[in-house]
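Translate structure to sequence.
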C-alpha cells in the first residue's frame, strides 16, 4: 500500500485546468521530486495531498484511506499526518523560534513539559538551540528556512511536503540546506515529496523524479 496517492485527479480554477488526469503514488521512505516549470501544477499536487485543496474529479488516498474524492474533503489536513513547508515559510513573526515550534504541539494537546523537551531536541537537531528565544525577523534567510523545517518536523509527520522552500536562497546556501534536509530524512525516516523547477535540486534530493508539464505528468 502506498503512503500517499492521487488517482486520476482533475483540478480546475474557473476555466483554467490546473491538473488533468494526474495519478501518482508515493511509497514509504522514498524521496519523490516533482520537477517542472512555473505554473505546471506542482503546488496544486502538494495542496491536494495536504488536504488544502480538493479534486473536482478523481481521488486522494492517504495511508490507503480515501481522503478526498469528487469535490469532497473526507480527511481534514490535521488528520493526515503530513508536514508542509511553503515557499513563503509562513512563520509567526510575533512568536519566538521556540514558540513557532510549540504551536502545533499545543494545538494537538501535548503536555507542556513534553512540548518543551521535543522543541529543544528538534532545535538542537537543526542547530538552532542558541536561537530558541529569537524572533523570525532577527534571523537570516537560511536560519528562517531551518525554523520552518523544524516546525514541520517536530510534529513527527509520516511525510514532509516541501514546496520550493529553497528557491529564494543563494546557490551555496540552498545546496547546504539540501544536504541538511537529506541528513534529517536519514535520521528521522520521513517520506519526502519535494517540488522544484531546478533540475540540479531534483538530482540532489530525489530517489525518484516525476516531470510535470501543463497540468500533467510528463512521463
Ligand atoms: N487559487 C488559484 N486561482 C486561480 N488559478 C490558480 C490558483 N492556484 C493555481 N492556479 C493556476 O493553476 C495552475 C497551476 O498552478 P500551481 O499548482 O501553483 O503551479 P506551480 O506550483 O507548478 O507553479 C497555474 O495555471 C495557476 O495559475
Ligand atoms: Mg508552486
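Result:
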Amino acid at each position: 500500500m502506498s503512503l500517499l496517492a492521487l488517482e486520476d485527479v482533475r483540478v480546475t480554477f474557473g476555466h483554467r485546468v490546473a491538473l488533468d488526469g494526474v495519478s501518482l503514488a508515493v511509497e514509504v521512505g522514498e524521496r519523490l521530486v516533482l520537477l517542472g516549470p512555473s505554473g505546471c501544477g506542482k503546488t496544486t499536487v502538494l495542496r491536494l495531498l495536504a488536504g488544502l485543496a480538493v479534486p473536482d474529479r478523481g481521488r486522494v488516498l492517504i495511508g490507503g484511506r480515501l481522503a478526498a474524492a469528487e469535490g469532497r474533503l473526507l480527511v481534514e489536513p490535521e488528520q493526515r499526518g503530513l508536514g508542509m513547508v511553503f515557499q513563503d515559510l509562513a512563520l509567526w513573526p510575533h512568536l519566538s523560534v521556540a514558540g513557532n515550534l510549540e504551536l502545533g504541539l499545543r494545538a494537538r494537546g501535548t503536555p507542556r513539559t513534553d512540548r518543551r523537551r521535543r522543541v529543544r531536541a528538534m532545535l538542537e537537531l537543526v542547530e538552532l538551540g542558541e536561537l530558541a528565544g529569537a524572533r523570525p525577523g532577527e534571523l537570516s534567510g537560511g536560519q528562517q528556512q531551518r525554523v520552518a523545517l523544524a516546525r514541520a518536523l517536530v510534529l513527527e509527520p509520516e511525510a514532509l511536503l516541501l514546496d520550493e522552500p529553497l528557491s529564494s536562497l543563494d546557490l551555496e546556501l540552498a545546496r547546504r540546506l539540501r544536504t541538511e534536509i537529506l541528513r534529517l530524512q536519514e535520521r528521522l525516516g520521513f517520506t519526502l515529496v519535494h517540488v522544484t523547477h531546478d533540475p540540479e535540486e531534483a538530482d540532489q534530493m530525489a530517489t525518484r523524479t516525476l516531470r510535470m508539464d501543463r497540468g500533467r505528468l510528463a512521463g
